[in-house]
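Let's practice the habit of predicting before peeking. Look at the sequence and jot down your guess about where helices and strands might fall. Then scroll down.
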Amino acid sequence: MKTPLFVVFITLLCFVIPVKLHATHIVGGNLSYECLGNDQYLVTMKVYRDCFFGQAILEDSARITIFTGIDASNTYRIEYLQRISLEEIELNPDNICLSFPSTVCVEEGVYQSIITLPYNNNGYHISYQRCCRNNTISNIYNPGQTGATYTTYISELALNTCNDSPLFNDFPPLVICLGEPLNFDHSVTDAQGDEAIYSFCAPFIGGSFSNPYPFVASPPPYTEVGFVTPPYSAANPVGGNPAIAIDSNTGMITGTPDVQGQFVIGVCVEEYRNGQLLSTTTRDFQFNVVPCTEITVTGTQPFSDCDGGGLEQIDLNIINGTPDYNYEWENGNDIGNGIGTMIENVTTGTYEITITDDSG
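Done guessing? Here is the structure:
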């Protein structure tokens, strides 16, 4: 009897364990829409997952729930968005001179489908729910068992005017440097030129550790994540000195982080036309605050020039960097380029050396 029971136990583990493993390390996401006319809307969702530690699968299609109403008496229907791309995000493409931890890796899955949204005087909530977040998040309670709800609200006015939701111009930097000033433009582009009001807001909870991908999302209003207090809150998700803040008119995020860690952040964009609310778009994302090391380059001269024949080579030691950066060197007479840490066939003189990575 022992052997069959052991086999049954192991078999059950094979069914139970993958469910939990595949539900972890969702980093963030947001939903947007574009009116195509005749009640047709192109709905786009972007979902971000940790591709180093994460085990969350980004499916070929994502199930969303569409609610008509403003409370738990909502009626709903299910729609599916098709994944059109999956790619890794560059850490900080604007600063190639910093060395970051190799454990930071995020993939972006983009989903789209055209769905029909006929006029409804209560508007629509479009929602997607998924569990769970990174265990190592610093500013909310029980992050490893806390899921997320990505949602957008389309008002009656937005339906009547065939409105498009505002679109975020850039994804926030995945890594921000401890003790260094942050300046990130988190603004949106609005096709109709409507007014955008920005704020930090609490991301929403959705799904659970036991039910990581609910077949039907729960209806609005949604429960907010619980911030660890003090010092964190929806309006002060990272802290800092000065505290990380967002300009309500421009969307510029500024401040200087002073605590290392991972931080969940929500940015809400309210879209207004002539003082009336058209839509609300929420982006849920994560900052990784780490000590950053600047990449420095030093030159060494391994050969003397006593015979006057010129130096055969100069070795470069790239500290805290990747050895196969591209380089170009010149001193007015000699010019060369290559890949690696060695510059060959140079003559005596002073050289200006430019080193770049693959992004240029």
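How did you do? Residues 1-23, 300-312 have pLDDT under 50 and may be disordered.
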